[in-house]
Write a structure and sequence with these properties.
About 40% of the residues lie in helices and about 10% in strands. It is built from 7 helices and 4 strands; from the N terminus they run H-H-H-H-E-H-H-E-E-E-H. Bound molecules: FE2/S2 (inorganic) cluster. FE2/S2 (inorganic) cluster (FES) binds near residues 98, 100, 143 and 146.
Length: about 180
């Protein structure tokens, strides 16, 4: 019996039409150039792209696939499998609401319903004013002080519906310069 031939991805000869700006393209190509030698480079590259652009644009997928010699379907599969990766541009602030068990026992289900109602969006959505994006997260390591959430990089514990509204008003408030 002959052993299977090594896996080969046939690179695309033609560029797919892309809506990326030249700055976005530069960011994505830069992340690939910096990180593609790492073992399992796809996740760190996606992470870097999201960190710099706030999301992983749809048209980043063929670009990254080409750089890593992967198929578009493989890269797309990873982007859509992990909830962490946003496929749409995020709002000015990203709110991560914890949905894991310990927070659920402390009222996270009611908080989630309130958050969706008061923002008028579901998970992965962004408010009409572009201020807030809402994302689920599964444990923020703040289990004893649930329900927990994170606004951008800032962790918040014991979040009631009232406190949630106050935090959202604060996030939306214009920044006053000293
Ligand atoms: S379960 Fe919510 S922070 Fe751990």
């Amino acid at each position: 019996m002959t052993s299977p031939s090594p896996r080969q991805v046939i690179p695309l000869k033609t560029e797919l039409p892309s809506a990326l700006s030249s700055a976005e393209r530069k960011t994505i190509e830069g992340a690939c150039a910096r990180l593609k030698a790492l073992p399992g480079a796809l996740l760190p590259i996606l992470h870097a792209v999201q960190e710099e652009l706030g999301f992983v644009p749809k048209d980043a997928v063929p670009l990254i696939a080409r750089q890593l010699n992967l198929s578009i379907a493989e890269v797309h599969g990873v982007v859509s499998f992990y909830h962490y990766y946003r496929q749409q541009r995020s709002g000015r602030h990203v709110v991560h609401l914890c949905r894991a068990e310990a927070c659920q026992a402390l009222g996270a289900v009611a908080l989630e319903a309130h958050a969706k109602r008061s923002l008028g969006i579901d998970f992965h959505g962004t408010t009409a004013d572009g201020a807030i994006s809402l994302e689920p997260v599964y444990c923020l390591g703040n289990c004893a002080l649930g329900p927990s959430m994170m606004i951008d990089e800032k962790l918040q514990g014991r979040v009631s519906a009232q406190r949630f509204d106050a935090l959202m008003a604060q996030a939306r408030a214009p920044v006053t310069k000293p």
